[in-house]
Design brief:
receptor, single chain, 14-stranded parallel β-sheet, alpha/beta, membrane
């Protein structure tokens, strides 16, 4: 190839040399002689006979230099244009010249480099294009010789390109080919994307394989890109043989590593590593390996289930310091911001451009060291557990373009934004995401951020007014300050200059949007959220200019006037429309079908009237609750409306039956609410088509008949409310066998009879069971302790509701329940926060005892068994229901005493034991003493300080019985003592002669000892009396007589 190039150059040189001396020098004019003229003619004839090709010598000198000048000028102008417009190192703007673009804008630099190369004159493709574009000019300027010159250059470049950088001339390294083949065979392949890989003949050139790129110089594999090709299986360690590998991307496959990543440490030349979505749950050495790759600049380990370990501090001594891009989001690592991971990242503070650690359960304060990353462009720490204030050092990040700290526990003010004003030529920030935190204070001025395109401060605690500096953010596309506590007036001054604004969200604040009726905004919005912005009473007329609306929420705005006709004709691209919470009058138009893209329509809580119109076919959510709509729902049956999410027609004046063909079309419906209407008839058997239904509410209608057995196919039901109808028959067994996901089952105020089926005990997730006001008889099942969800406190905030559809309706149910039972547990903190476990079997014909198994439901909050025929004594372990807040056992036949363990029910707020046969004294306790007589009235034998009968007759009789019992025991004890004492002594003397002799001998000895003592005492006293004198003779005589008598009896 090189020889061919040289031959081309020789051909070009010979062609040029042929005309190198063709210029005729200027000489004086003279007339040639005849002989000279003849000789000249002969010479010209010889030349013409040699060759008839070429030009006349007199014209060649003019075109050659002109052609060369044209070519040189063209190349010069093209080169100058190429350098100015496409060179990565040439910048027109001063701001870009003051930064390091390779670090600050690596993507843009790469893009400019590609453009520079692709548009280069010496790029073959562009040179060919340039040749064909300038072919005519070249021919005119230089004739045939210029064309030959350009063709020679093209051939030379073509040959050079073939000789340099073509993989066809390079054979891949055998060991690397074998490593790649081994890697392939370790995978489970569902496609033939790697069909070019193999050891067979014709496939051994691995540099031609899919996803493989080799070095043009050494032939080693330097790049392996297998991204998103549905590869499955364990990572083969054979890749460690690719020691020249610089780029490795195995992301978005179904690969896993169940050991460690030691093999990765052999790839010391790696600069780009992407293992996103590779399952690395056992790779405990991932940090040690990755931090040891000294040349690594790009690291992406997204959603890899990385393990969390306590790494040694020594790991970062020799760690890489050239990181540019790091993406570790969605790994849910429980790490502190003081961990070694952050210390490693901060070592690259001079090079790191992009850092994403979102969704990782990071805890602690936001490190101030982030302020030292002066080239950082993108920082995402969202969806973690970070707390405290944002450091003021963030103001040093003048190169920052995107900052996302959303969904954390950050607090304090937004004062750190003031520090960005110190940046030269203002901050480069384009996206500011701080939503779902606890930031407070006012929104600061934003003059330092002229390039801002997105402001997301949703769901914080900001107060004050919206700063007027927002009106100077000419690049702003998204403004979201919804769900704060902002106040004041937002006028045209804030919005008029925002010509690029596309998303405006001011919902749930205390602001008033004060815009003139004929105002024409400069922007064309796509998403509008103005809930509770006091737009009324007129319908906002400026919306007529917004032709690209996709999302519109102007609910709760006190709009009292009807919707203008232009609205139904100027917003054809709407996907979401919410006008709820106003009092808009009028009828629903028949032109709703023009909204071909409309997915969700919420017109609830207005004053719409008349029949239901025809709705768009793509509608998945329809909420018309709390209006005055009347008639049947047949219009919903005459269309192919999907309704795959919600149909809420509650609190209207609708009537008629529930059409069978209508229900059969709602196969994807998840929520059906028809309560508080005038529907009648039976539930159609086609309800079995609602396989995805989660909430079914038919409360307060006129439905009757038995529940259809086809309802058993609705196995995903979470809440069933059929109360306030005329359903009859026995409670079906399939409820407890098929509705296994049920949490709320309400069948009160119907005509159900029979007994409670034991199958209901199989509803282990059930938290509310309400069968009150029916005709149910029999005993309460003893298996209710199998309702395991009632053993602990359950909360509906933990519902499996990823898209948030079910939760609002569960909250609505709690609001209804609390309003209806407010007199029962009005002080209950648990119920107010959506925690409720309740059993209500009141107003039935139940009989039998109180099931002792109920006492094991420690999480039960409400228990109502009133107005039945239950009897017997209450179990003594009633105190085990420690979470009980409301207990109603009134109007039954319970007897015996009130269990003393009930005094330990520390949360009890409502108690009704009235009109039973309880007896005895009411147990004392702080809570039980606090209830008045209404809780105990109607129990004739019950006494206590709460009742007028403070003295208990039965209690006095009981005391007398206790005294009689004591006397009886006393006499029995005396008799037993006498018997044992007397016969124990006397019997032993009768039966044993030795004991008898010893006994009497002891008595005689004792008598002698006593008499001796008395005689000695007598003599002593007589001596004392003799010394006393004659005046004591009478007393002495008396004492002498006394002693004489004692001696007499002693003898």
């Amino acid at each position: 190839m090189a020889f061919r190039s040289m031959s081309n150059w020789k051909w070009l040189a010979n062609g040029v040399r042929r005309y190198a001396t063709a210029t005729t020098p200027k000489t004086k004019a003279y007339a040639p002689t005849a002989s000279e003229f003849a000789e000249l003619q002969r010479h010209q004839g010889r030349e013409s006979s040699k060759s008839n090709k070429g030009m006349k010598g007199d014209f060649v000198p003019v075109y050659v230099p002109i052609g060369m000048i044209c070519l040189s000028t063209t190349l010069g102008l093209y080169t100058a244009r190429q350098q100015l417009f496409y060179s990565p190192n040439v910048f027109v703007k001063k701001q870009r010249r003051e930064t390091l673009p390779e670090v600050v804008e690596p993507d843009r630099v790469l893009e400019d480099a590609d453009k520079f190369f692709n548009k280069s004159f010496f790029s073959l493709e562009n040179m060919l294009g340039l040749f064909f574009q300038t072919n005519e000019v070249a021919l005119l300027c230089s004739g045939g010789m210029s064309l030959q010159f350009l063709i020679a250059i093209i051939v030379f470049v073509l040959n050079m390109n073939r000789g340099i950088g073509d993989n066809t001339s390079i054979r891949c390294v055998k060991s690397e080919r074998e490593a790649l083949v081994e890697f392939k065979y370790s995978l489970i392949l569902e496609s033939d994307w790697l069909s070019s890989w193999g050891d067979e003949d014709g496939k051994k050139e691995c540099c031609k394989w899919q996803g493989v790129q080799c070095s043009n110089i050494t032939g080693h594999v330097v790049k392996l890109d297998l991204k998103a090709h549905n590869l499955q299986g364990k990572l083969s360690h054979s890749l460690m043989d690719l020691q020249s590998l610089e780029y490795l991307d195995l992301s978005f496959n179904k690969l896993f590593e169940d050991e460690n990543l030691k093999w990765l440490s052999y790839l010391s030349n790696l600069e780009y590593l992407d293992l996103s979505y590779v399952y690395l749950y056992r790779a405990n050495d991932w940090f040690e390996v990755v931090s040891g790759l000294r040349r690594l600049s790009t690291l992406k380990l997204v959603k890899c289930s990385l393990p969390t370990l306590n790494w040694s501090q020594s790991l970062i001594i020799n760690a890489s310091t050239s990181l540019v891009i790091v993406d570790l989001h969605q790994n849910h690592m429980s790490l502190s911001t003081s961990s070694i991971l952050f210390q490693w990242l901060f070592k690259s503070n001079a090079t790191l451009v992009s850092l994403d650690l979102s969704s990782n359960n990071l805890s602690g304060l936001v490190p101030s060291s982030f302020g030292e990353m002066v080239v950082l462009r993108d920082l995402d720490l969202s969806d973690n557990q970070l707390k405290g204030m944002v450091p003021e050092s963030f103001g040093n990040l003048c190169s920052l373009r995107s900052l996302n700290l959303s969904r954390n526990h950050l607090n304090g003010t937004l004062a750190f934004l003031h520090n960005f004003s110190s940046c030269v030529n203002s901050s480069m920030l384009e996206s500011l995401g701080l939503h779902s935190n606890r930031f407070c204070g006012s929104l600061p001025d934003l003059y330092a951020f002229p390039w801002l395109k997105e402001i997301d401060l949703y769901d914080n605690k900001l107060v004050g007014t919206l700063t007027k500096s927002v009106g100077n953010l000419f690049e702003l596309e998204t403004l979201d300050v919804s769900y704060n506590s902002l106040e004041g007036v937002i006028s045209e001054l804030h919005l008029s200059s925002l010509s690029k604004l596309r998303n405006l969200h001011l919902s749930s604040n205390s602001v008033k949007l004060n815009l003139s009726f004929d105002w024409v905004p400069s922007f064309n919005l796509e998403f509008v959220g103005l809930r509770s912005c006091k737009l009324g009473p007129d319908f906002p007329n400026w919306l007529a200019t917004q032709k690209n609306l996709s999302y519109l929420d102007i609910s709760d705005n006190q709009i009292f006037y009807s919707i203008p006709k232009w609205f139904w004709n100027t917003t054809p691209y709407l996907h979401y429309l919410n006008l709820s919470g106003n009092r808009i009058p009028g009828r629903l138009p028949d032109t709703l079908t023009k909204f071909h893209s409309l997915d969700e329509l919420d017109l609830s809580s207005n004053s719409f009237e008349g029949p239901l119109p025809t709705f768009p076919t793509n509608l998945t959510l329809l909420n018309l609750a709390n209006n005055f709509i009347s008639g049947s729902i047949s219009s919903l049956c005459n269309t192919t409306t999907l309704l795959s999410k919600i149909l809420d027609l509650s609190d209207n004046q609708l009537s008629g039956v529930l059409p069978d063909d209508c229900v059969s079309k709602w196969t994807g419906l998840r929520i059906l609410k028809l309560e508080n209407n005038n529907f009648s008839g039976k539930i159609p058997s086609s309800i079995s088509s609602l396989r995805q239904i989660q909430i079914l509410n038919l409360r307060n209608n006129g439905f009757f008949g038995e529940l259809p057995s086809s309802m058993r196919d609705c196995g995903k039901l979470i809440m069933v409310d059929l109360s306030g109808n005329k359903f009859s028959g026995e409670l079906p067994l399939w409820m407890g066998e098929n509705l296994l996901s049920s949490k709320i089952l309400i069948l009160r105020s119907n005509n159900f009879d029979g007994s409670i089926p034991l199958s209901l005990c199989g509803l282990i997730y059930l938290q509310i069971l309400d069968l009150a006001q029916n005709n149910i008889s029999g005993n309460i099942p003893q298996c209710l302790d199998e309702l395991t969800a009632m053993i602990t406190f359950g909360s509906y905030e933990n519902l499996d509701d990823d898209d948030g559809i079910t939760r609002p309706f569960i909250s609505e149910f709690f609001a209804y329940w609390n309003d209806k039972h407010s007199n029962t547990y009005e002080n209950s903190a648990k119920v107010a926060h959506g925690v409720l476990n309740a059993i209500d079997l009141s107003c039935n014909k139940l009989s039998g005892p109180f099931p002792e198994e109920l006492c094991s439901l420690g999480g039960l909050i409400v228990l109502n068994l009133s107005r039945n025929d239950l009897s017997g004594e209450l179990p003594q372990n009633m105190g085990e229901m420690e979470g009980l807040e409301s207990l109603d056992l009134s109007q039954n036949q319970f007897s015996g005493g009130i269990p003393t363990t009930m005094s330990g029910l520390s949360f009890l707020a409502y108690l009704n034991l009235s009109y039973n046969n309880f007896s005895g004294r009411i147990p004392s306790g702080v809570l039980l003493d606090a209830f008045d007589s209404d809780a105990y009235i109607g129990n004739q034998a019950l006494c206590g300080p709460q009742l007028t009968q403070k003295y208990c007759p039965l209690e006095a009789t009981s005391d007398q019985s206790q005294q009689d019992e004591y006397k009886k025991l006393f006499y029995i004890g005396m008799a037993m003592g006498f018997f044992i004492g007397f016969w124990g002594t006397f019997g032993s003397l009768v039966l044993s002669r030795t004991w008898r002799h010893a006994y009497f001998n002891f008595l005689f000895t004792l008598k002698d000892w006593v008499l001796l003592k008395l005689a000695l005492s007598k003599a002593k006293i007589q001596r004392m009396l003799q010394r006393a004198g004659s005046e004591d003779t009478t007393r002495t005589t008396g004492w002498t007589g006394l002693f004489s008598i004692c001696i007499f009896y002693g003898e």
